[in-house]
């Protein structure tokens, strides 16, 4: 059954991490860059095929949330889709962050890949970042790069979002990395 999902097959399921994540970002309240540990829950549910003319996509509907310490409300959430086009070898991650950001990141890879890197750039004609007016003026996402490694009952990511922020003269690298374990 999972062969249609190519490199996404190993991501199907419910996932959690305890405190293995690390978010390195600028803290507006403390006016400094902080490395904050976090825990995460992620759900990836398969669907497909979705036919788009001659294109046939298989995907994962995903939702992810992250919490620092004992916080009741997550500090970060994402909803979106992972998509696989077996005919072309194109892999995509399309997601929305409720701060007014949308991302369509992608790469070309093989169906049996267990490590791949997806990228998006502000203003690109294919793999693109969209953002609201406030973010464009104060903390614009210039690029997004995520390297994913899929194991037997784990997967990990290393993400770098390069931002143009009013607080810094040069672009700032906001990083996140975590390893999640399958819980069902």
Short synopsis of the structure:
The protein is mainly β and 184 residues long. It has one helix at residues 133-138, and strands at 13-27, 32-52, 55-67, 76-85, 90-97, 101-108, 115-122, 128-131, 139-150, 154-165, 172-182. Helix content is 3%, strand content 66%.
Tell me the series of helices and strands, N- to C-terminal: EEEEEEEEHEEE
Structural class of the helix and strand makeup?
Answer: mainly beta
The overall pLDDT, averaged over residues, is 96
Total domains: 1
* Beta-strand percent range: over 45%
The CATH topology: Lipocalin
Number of E-type strands? 11
Q: In which order are the strands of the major sheet placed?
A: 1-2-3-4-5-6-8-7-9-10-11
CATH class: Mainly Beta
Radius of gyration: 17 Å
Could you name the CATH homologous superfamily?
Calycin beta-barrel core domain
Give the second-level CATH assignment, the architecture. Beta Barrel
Shape: globular
Distance N terminus to C terminus?
17 Å
Specify the helix fraction band.
under 10%
Task: Walk me through what this model shows.
By secondary structure, the protein is mainly beta. The protein has one domain (2-182): Beta Barrel (Lipocalin), CATH 2.40.128. It has one helix and eleven strands. It has one helix spanning 133-138; strands at 13-27, 32-52, 55-67, 76-85, 90-97, 101-108, 115-122, 128-131, 139-150, 154-165, 172-182. Strand 5 (90-97) and strand 6 (101-108) form a beta hairpin. The protein is globular, with a radius of gyration of 17 Å.
């Amino acid at each position: 059954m999972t062969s249609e999902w190519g490199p996404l097959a190993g991501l199907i399921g419910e996932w959690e991490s305890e405190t293995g994540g690390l978010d390195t970002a600028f803290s507006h309240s403390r006016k400094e860059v902080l490395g904050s540990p976090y825990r995460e829950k992620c759900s990836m549910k398969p669907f497909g095929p979705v036919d788009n003319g001659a294109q046939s996509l298989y995907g994962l509907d995903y939702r992810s949330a992250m919490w620092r310490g004992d916080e009741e409300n997550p500090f970060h959430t994402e909803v979106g889709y992972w998509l696989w086009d077996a005919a072309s070898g194109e892999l995509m991650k399309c997601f929305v962050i409720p701060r007014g950001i949308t991302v369509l990141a992608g790469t070309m890879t093989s169906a049996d890949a267990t490590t791949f890197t997806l990228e998006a750039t502000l203003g690109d004609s294919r793999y693109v970042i969209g953002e609201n007016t406030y973010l464009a003026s104060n903390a614009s996402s210039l690029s997004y790069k995520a390297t994913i490694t899929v194991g037997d009952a784990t997967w990990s990511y290393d993400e770098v979002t390069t931002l143009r922020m009013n607080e810094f003269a040069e672009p700032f690298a906001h990083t996140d990395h975590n390893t999640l374990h399958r819980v069902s």
